[in-house]
Amino acid sequence: MQDQTIEIRWHGRGGQGAITAAKIFAQAAFEAGFPGVVMAPSFGTERRGAPVEVSLKISKTKINDLSPIENPDVVVVLDDSILAEVDVTAGMKPGGILVINTPKGGALCNGNHVSLATADVTHLAEQAGLKRGIVNTGVIGALAKALPIVPLSNLIAAIEAEFKDKKPAENAAAARVTHAHTTLE
After folding, report:
1. pTM higher than 0.85 for the full model?
2. Percent of the chain with pLDDT over 70
């Protein structure tokens, strides 16, 4: 997967930081040797709490296709309650990776033909010192474990740069602890 364009679709709710998480992952991927990076958020007029989708494409070569992702290699879900509202696996490539912030584990997605990575990011991020519901940096740690193409150290550096004035140590800790506690199935 590392030699082709990797398409990552992010699902979250307005205010959870899905766009920021995708931006951080994109920056770290660029610095780790993926010069092709394209990111595009998609949301309606509603804001806080409404479903948000972000498309992120990364590649070792230039990306000319700027269209939204229809057949993702990876789907990242920041809030498992979205699973009742949105078919997050729609169009997902066979053998893709599904990363979910959930305390429920793999039973949540029985029947899908994908690799699954789960972590209770909400709880782990709170343990790291973040306010309840701040899950974007933690979910980056889960993604790094499920899709180890960008070194965790690059992601931590990008997180600390993004949040240099807003709890950089806590945000970095959320990514580290979630990475360590992500279950791969």
Report:
1. yes
2. 91
Do the beta carbons of residue 125 and residue 106 sit within 8 Å?
Answer: no
Superfamily in which the 6-184 domain is placed by CATH: Pyruvate-ferredoxin oxidoreductase, PFOR, domain III (3.40.920.10)
- For residue 21, give the nearest of 147, 128, 123, 141 by alpha carbon: 141
What would the DSSP string read from start to end of 71-133?
S-SEEEES-GGGGGTS-TTTTPPTT-EEEEE-SSGGGGGTT--SEEEEE-HHHHHHHTTPPTT
What residue ranges do the domains of the chain occupy? 6-184
Reported confidence tier of residue 113, pLDDT bands at 50, 70, 90:
confident
What pLDDT shows up at residue 112?
61
Among residues 133, 147, 125, 106, which one has the least CA distance to residue 9?
147
Q: How far apart, in whole angstroms, are the C-alpha atoms of residue 26 and residue 54?
A: 12
